[in-house]
Amino acid sequence: MTDGDVAAFTHLGSSVRSALSERGFSTPTAPQRLAIPPLAAGEHTLVIAPTGSGKTETAMLPVFDGLVEDRPDGFGALYITPLRALNRDMRDRLEWWGETLDLEVDVRHGDTTQYRRRQQAEDPPDVLVTTPETLQAMLTGERLREGLEDVRHVVVDEVHELAASKRGAQLAVGLERLQELSDPFQRIGLSATVGEPEAVGQFLTGGRPCTVREIDVGSRIDVEVCRPTVTDEDERLAGALATDATTASHVRCIRDIVDAHESTLIFVNTRQTAEALGSRFTRLELPIGVHHGSLSKAARIEVEDRFKAGELDALLCTSSMELGIDVGRIDHVIQYQSPRQVSRLLQRIGRAGHRRDEISRGTIVTTRPDDTLEALAIARRAKAGEVEPAGIHEGSLDVVANQIPGIVQSTGSRHVDTVIDLLRRAYPFRDLEESVFRGVLGELHRNRIVWFDEGGDRVETAGSTWQYVYANLSMIPDEATYEVHDIASGGQIGTLDERFVTTFAQPGAVFIQRGEMWRIVEIDEDETRVKVTPIEDPAGEVPSWTGQEIPVPQPVAEEVGAIRAIVGSQLDTGDDVTSVSQDLGERYPGEHRALERACRHLGDQREGDAPMPTADRVVLERQGRTVVLNACFGHRTNETLGRVLSALLGQQSGSSVGLDTDPYRIELEVPTSVSTSDICEKLTKTDPAHVEPILELGLKGSDTLAYRLAQISAKFGALKRWQGSGRLSNERLLAALKDTPMYAESVRSVFHEDLDVEAASAVFAGIQSGEIALETVRGRTAIGSAGRSGGKELLAPENADASVIETVKERLHDDRVTLLCTHCLDWLSRTKVKRVADQPACPECGSTRIAALSPWADEVVQAVQAAEKDDEQIEQTQRAVRNAGLVQSHGKRAVIAMSARGVGPHNAAQIINRLREDEQEFYRDILEKERQYARTKSFWD
């Protein structure tokens, strides 16, 4: 043992050192060696180390030591965790120390019984494990506030998760409210690896001095990127899995890695993927459990305990397992598909091998060329410690609105200056302007949440204050979820998002949850329950979970562009793929076959003489109405660029513009009237300073803004949800709340969470200065065609005027259509809509039962003409017959309506049955159906 090892524990008193010996801790862990000295000295400290590396004990040993030396009368320490599951886990881990040191450790959260809450108020435990939301409730209770006056230590676990959210902004104010109650207390933050740790430290302490103690995680990980190739075994396995050979190769690769280790965590990026992969492992009867946030608490605890006991070889999990839930020792971590961010890779891989200060080992299993290059870039950046900043959520006005009622409910009438000073002491609100603050106060006063005389200087409670406070303890948006219950056992399996239930779910529908297939038997709207029965059918739908795709940061996407540039130039000089991939392998930790396949894909781009999209070259390609701008700028920048382009092109053409983005592409579906030069002109002539106002104009009237506004206005008391008032329509909501602080905060939230105006403006400026090259190519390229659709959003101008309607009419009349006689089945014609007769008829048999189909509907035509039909062809034929019936009844009007995007026979019939005499209203109805299709397409496509 070195002097440094000994020195860490010498900072602790005799009682804690005796407990350490009894527990078998003879040598401090790396975080303990670094952090115990400043913690024992009472310094505010941020401890950064891999999840599961002993951060909890590092923080709590000095806290226990302080409590033993000077017993508190009230709550001596608060341990705040972002997840209830961590509450349970922390109590289990801390109870032994409490019993040994004669300190009481207890838990309090939303499910704690009233009896236990009263006990805690009357006789506070020495250490209370709780959540940010429960702290909010405690700050309003008279007896609890007395107990909180004795707090000397506050530990915030997973502080990096909270810093980037409105929950964290709310907690930051909560800590300052706690500071008003008690003597100055020590603040301790525990965090997985994060960029800009100093900023997270300032968030934790409210700008007070903070000591940062960080473990260099990058030097302690060993990660390899691999991409499975299809083998003969995979061809055989595909049949057993009811899938294709490529997916079978992924399952087989993961299975083999799990078999080679004792205990493995398999991380995936979405719950859909967890369920889909889990169902494959279930079919192979492999001992691999599924763990994610939409499973019931009982189901999660069951798989955690089985994994810890060695009954399961692996856990298939999502980001919730990044946090410190104890599932025993892990010797390997698999990341399925790119982890998207450096911080996530470090948090996930860091869960392996930490118990003996070992190297953490992991494998990233990739599925596509982009995926492989992205994983390589992230793995290199992780080793180098190039981690993304936390992105602290600053200045959110709905948090200000949420905290003002809590402050006056807790302390009574307050001078306005003392309230704003309190808020400014919280780091996210250090720059809060008084005029903005008073605007929020005025809104709360109008909604009768607090009383505030705009001419005076005091803010007081109102009749609705206490109702508001207890209905709005959380900044997590209220979204209904449905419990899923097995009708046979009566047990709860998990939950489903309300949007999935309302959009997809109906009796007989099949979906996957907990890695198993279920059929819906009944939906109980009153109880918000879905009753299901298990089935063996592999062909089901994966639940549409709430949650966005993890965004790829711009630096990662730009490094992918840099890799493309290097590989492309080497291939251009005549190097073969093998030597180029070997060279790449010297700089990036990839398995040689994965590297070779990625290089070969880039070679396909160069073989077609197409320019290589890189970090400083964007390539615009076009085929028909599909335009792809290959741009290596990451999710948020590309989303911002795409929205600006679609808004400008939509305004120019008066037509809907399809938009789909990923970190490396912006895909647009444009009307034929939009030329490639039009798009280039938008890129080269749009003033970078106009990006933000263009986006604001595009947001007006959008469902995205209305959805955010509904959530935020509830925090201002404008919707008073606790009174059960009905919901406003989006249009009325947006109109009613325009020019309010709520509207401004909604726009700010969309910009902060979804877009990057500054980065997009820099791209426009770079293209216009020549720092970023813009090249065009005709037809599709290998890279441009390799994107993965994330759900297409059609952006159409709202409240279209006469010129827009005329443009819509021209677009529809210029569209091509396939006409097929469903009577004789012999006649087929491909033509433009404008050339279709008012009442189409077959020239062969004279029938008017003519189906008007998409110009690419070859499958449907073949199905209708087939002599012997399978089930799918029968269904396609029935749809074509319904289509033909509509054309027979309504002639060309039906052809026009069904030519619109997303408008089939059902929607076309609704449009026609309105019997619009005004032709403009007919096309306006079509445009509205196109917008409806844009809003719902991601759920059913």
Automatic annotation (TrEMBL):
Belongs to the Lhr helicase family. Lhr-Core subfamily. Pfam families: DEAD, DEAD_assoc, Helicase_C, WHD_Lhr. This is DEAD/DEAH box helicase. InterPro entries: ATP-dep_Helicase, DEAD/DEAH_box_helicase_dom, Helicase_ATP-bd, Helicase_C-like, Lhr-like, Lhr-like_DEAD/DEAH_assoc, Lhr_WH_dom, P-loop_NTPase. One of its GO terms (molecular function) is helicase activity. Transmembrane segments: none annotated. Keywords: ATP-binding, DNA damage, DNA repair, DNA-binding, Helicase, Hydrolase, Isomerase, Nucleotide-binding. GO terms for biological process: DNA repair. CDD domains: DEXHc_LHR-like. Residues 36-212 form the Helicase ATP-binding domain. Residues 253-404 form the Helicase C-terminal domain.
